[in-house]
Amino acid sequence: MNKETFVAVDKYYEELIVNADPKFDRINEAADLAGLPSIQVSACQGKFLQLLVQMQGAKRVLEIGTLAGYSTAWLASGLGKDGHLISLELDPHHASVAAQNLAQFDFQGTVEILVGDGLQLIDEMILAGQDPFDLVFIDADKEGYADYLNRVTNLSHPGTFIIADNVVRNGRIIEKNNQDSDILGIQRFHQELISNPRLDATMLQTVGARSYDGFTFIIVNSD
Ligand code: SAH
Ligand code: DHB
Ligand code: MG
């Protein structure tokens, strides 16, 4: 089995069952034109995020790491008109490309992009006494994952579902003595996870257009 097969199978199911609005491809085309890195979730993964939002009956969704708004659009597609999605993005250029992309959809007031450091913005939301989120997608700098998880539990309720992207990194996660900052960050994230008795989790490995990686899925339980 090789990468070409993974990509072809992704494409097969993307065309057969995902049924994405052509606007989703437009996001990735605009991202390429603007010179943004091609590190967004795949269409099949994005659709999965939409289904999770629907399954959760989520009204409030938090995303950390917007890029061009591709995963943002999938998450927002699972929300009703009374839903609200806040996406946090450090890079103002990424945020402006995302805002233009998301304006092509009918999300109106449901999607909000906040520009700044994710951790700082989360701390501001905690201080402002924001309502808890029903679903959180962590997909920004891997070095920040542990802190994002730690803080996001202060913006959660029992039943909040947290998804973290890129927890496998081509298998580098299990390399002994790997000192890469992304790997150390993801290891620290899982130490944070297991240190919190309210959190229960699993992991799924993924292959496909985004090579070999994985998601960690976490539910927040009551004390
Ligand atoms: N969720 C997107 C991909 C996100 S890529 C998708 O699947 O479509 C990671 C993004 O996180 C990049 O746009 C990067 O600029 C942003 N980022 C990096 N460090 C950050 C930080 N400290 N706070 C917020 N966003 C950050
Ligand atoms: C990278 C970041 C991501 O969020 C992703 O999905 C893939 C790669 C990266 O920074 O390399
Ligand atoms: Mg990612």
Tell me what the structure shows.
- With 223 residues, the protein is α/β, with parallel strands linked by helices.
- The protein has a single domain (3-220), classed as Rossmann fold (3-Layer(aba) Sandwich).
- It is 42% helix and 18% strand.
- It has 8 helices and 7 strands.
- Strands 3-2-1-4-5-7-6 form a 7-stranded mixed β-sheet, with helices on both faces.
- The model has no long low-confidence stretch (mean pLDDT 97).
- 3,4-dihydroxybenzoic acid binds at residues 39, 139, 165-166.
Which structural class best describes the helix and strand composition?
alpha/beta
Strand sequence of the main sheet, in spatial order?
3-2-1-4-5-7-6
Determine the strand fraction and express it as a percent band: 15-25%
CATH homology superfamily name: Vaccinia Virus protein VP39
Features:
binds magnesium ion, alpha/beta, binds 3,4-dihydroxybenzoic acid, 223 residues, single chain, binds S-adenosyl-L-homocysteine, Rossmann fold
Brief account:
By secondary structure, the chain is α/β, with parallel strands linked by helices.
Give a topology summary.
Elements: H1 3-18, H2 22-33, H3 43-56, E1 60-64, H4 70-77, E2 84-89, H5 92-102, E3 111-115, H6 118-127, E4 135-138, H7 145-152, E5 161-165, H8 181-195, E6 199-206, E7 213-220
Parallel strand pairs: 1-2, 1-4, 2-3, 4-5
Antiparallel strand pairs: 5-7, 6-7
Helix pairs in contact: 2-5, 3-4, 6-7, 7-8
The protein binds S-adenosyl-L-homocysteine, 3,4-dihydroxybenzoic acid and magnesium ion (MG).
